[in-house]
Design brief:
The protein is of the alpha+beta class. It is built from nine helices and twelve strands. The chain has helices at 39-46, 58-66, 90-104, 117-128, 143-156, 160-170, 241-245, 250-255, 257-261; strands spanning 16-19, 26-29, 72-75, 79-82, 130-141, 177-182, 185-186, 193-194, 199-203, 208-214, 221-231, 268-269. A hairpin with a 6-residue loop joins strand 7 and strand 8 (193-194). The longest helix is centred in the middle third of the chain and has 15 residues, at 90-104. The protein is globular. The chain starts with 15 loop residues before the first strand and ends with a strand. The mean pLDDT is 86.
Length: 270
């Protein structure tokens, strides 16, 4: 698909689709695609549609769909689905995207150039702004160190002024944190509450940092750091993700990742 290349003598395909072995997870690619995260929230708010942010776990989607409260869902690990089945469905996702492309080209199917995935995404950016997103995974971290890091991040949330002072000392071009809390979810269907689902820092410009602890057994824990920069305006969309996300590397210094874990770099970058 020619992703990550600045130039090529061969014109890449306009549409690409991939799936894992049982086709529940999927990836849709156009030329030079970029991952997104909270873009769904922005669109739903703009269109006055009800939406839900749920913890990790497909069961939360299932409850909402069974109750008729949700008809489409997606998760960070390339899982997309609809209410026709209580599972991720990568084949459905591919067909959904092909339907979107067909609709966008319905008035000019015989034209020289079809409206592509890239065209649709750029139109989305022009309308709703662009969410640059990456995830850092620190695997097999000592469980004690991981818990101490998360506890420190939680205690810091009691004083946003101190947090913002620290952030400005690291990067002056980062927006101020306006909300800092620990995400918990109350299921609107059965009333169950899921606590300790991640510590989040929400910025005034729509960007966010989320820290989540996964697997704290005897072998070790995984710390996941979600970094998301929101940009609006034609001059700021379509940039290289890592360049756009550079200001929010404050996440690593804010969390004192290296001091607590001894890690100078993540195990995996998504």
């Amino acid at each position: 698909m020619d992703l990550g290349k600045s130039s090529s003598n061969v014109e890449p395909p306009e549409f690409g689709a991939a799936a894992d072995g049982d086709a529940d997870r999927n990836m849709i690619l156009g030329k030079r695609s970029m991952p997104i995260s909270a873009a769904f929230d922005v669109v739903a708010k703009n269109l006055n549609l009800k939406f839900f942010e749920v913890p990790t776990g497909r069961k939360f989607f299932g409850n909402l769909m069974d109750a008729g409260m949700c008809s489409i869902c997606g998760e960070e690990s390339f899982g997309t689905g609809s209410d026709h089945i209580r599972e991720k469905d990568g084949i459905w996702a591919v067909l959904a995207w092909l339907s979107i492309i067909a609709f966008k080209n319905k008035d000019d199917l015989g034209g020289d150039k079809l409206v592509s995935v890239e065209d649709i995404v750029r139109q989305h950016w022009a309308t709703y702004g662009c969410h640059y997103y990456t995830r850092y995974d620190y695997e097999n971290v000592g469980a004690g160190a991981a818990k101490e890091l998360m506890a420190n991040l939680g205690s810091m949330q009691s004083s946003l002024s101190d947090v913002n002072k620290l952030i400005k000392e690291i990067r002056s071009d980062v927006s101020e944190v306006v909300v800092a809390d620990e995400f918990e979810y109350k299921d609107p269907v059965d009333g169950s509450v899921s606590k300790h689902q991640g510590i989040q820092y929400l910025f005034g410009d729509g960007s966010r940092l989320v820290f989540r602890l996964s697997g704290t057994g005897s072998v070790g824990a995984t710390i996941r750091v979600y970094i998301e920069q929101y940009e609006k305006g034609s001059s700021k969309t379509g940039r290289d993700s890592q360049d756009a996300l550079a200001p929010l590397v404050v996440a690593l210094k804010l969390s004192k990742m290296q001091e607590y874990t001894g890690r100078s770099a993540p195990t995996v970058i998504t």
